[in-house]
Every structure is written in structure tokens, then in C-alpha cells.
Design a protein that fits this description.
35% strand, 5 strands, elongated, 5-stranded antiparallel β-sheet, alpha+beta
């Protein structure tokens, strides 16, 4: 009788492990959800920068201007605007060619209950 109980317990435990392994890919992973944005400016458009808020449909763009009409001022105006809303700078890129010159700053922030309302266009 003792052996039957152990055998039944082992079979039950093995069944639970197999069921858990089979269901694991179907359970969504829980972890941080990030939002992404970028700021791009070009010397050919001095005093203007474009903030791209990444969405599942592409970018939702916002133009940001600087009264000083300089590339760095427009970039910093836009970066400051994002920073005030909890975005953090992750990396930068610069494109220099004969036909194009552009600087892009990339940002991210954790999506939370506090900033989910910003996704509606109130950035």
C-alpha cells in the first residue's frame, strides 16, 4: 500500500510538471514595459527638432522649436521637454554625408499608470 501511494504521488508530481512546462509558453511574461522616443535635428533646419513618440503604427511626431535658431538649442529644448516627463537618454547617433547631416537622441521610459495618459497626445 505504501508503494502505491508513493507511485501515485510521483505520477501526480510528474503530471503537474509536464502541465506547467506545456503551459509556460502560453503565459505572458511579466516585466517592465518600455516606451520609446527620439529627437532628431539637422543643420538644414536650424532651430527645429522633431520628437518621435514610437507607437505600434510608427512615429507620432511633434515639432519643437528654439528661438536661438541653433541645432544644439533645438535638440536640448526637445530633450529637456522629454526629461521633464520622465524620459531617459539611452544613446545618440549622428549621420554625416554629403547630402545629409542629422543628430538623433534616443530615449526610453517605463510605461506606468502615471504616464499612460501621455500616449494620447499630451506629451
Amino acid at each position: 500500500m505504501q508503494i502505491k501511494k508513493r507511485h501515485s504521488a510521483l505520477v501526480a508530481a510528474a503530471g503537474i510538471l509536464l502541465l506547467a512546462a506545456a503551459l509556460k509558453p502560453q503565459i505572458p511574461s511579466v516585466g517592465p514595459v518600455w516606451e520609446y522616443s527620439s529627437v532628431t535635428a539637422s543643420p538644414t533646419s536650424p532651430g527645429r527638432a522633431v520628437i518621435c513618440y514610437a507607437t505600434s503604427n510608427g512615429c507620432r511626431n511633434e515639432q519643437v522649436g528654439s528661438t536661438y535658431r541653433q541645432l544644439e538649442d533645438a535638440l536640448m529644448t526637445a530633450a529637456t521637454k522629454l526629461g521633464e516627463k520622465g524620459w531617459e537618454l539611452t544613446t545618440t547617433a549622428e549621420i554625416q554625408s554629403e547630402s545629409k547631416s542629422e543628430r538623433t537622441l534616443y530615449f526610453r521610459r517605463l510605461q506606468s499608470v502615471l504616464n499612460r495618459g501621455d500616449s494620447s497626445g499630451n506629451h
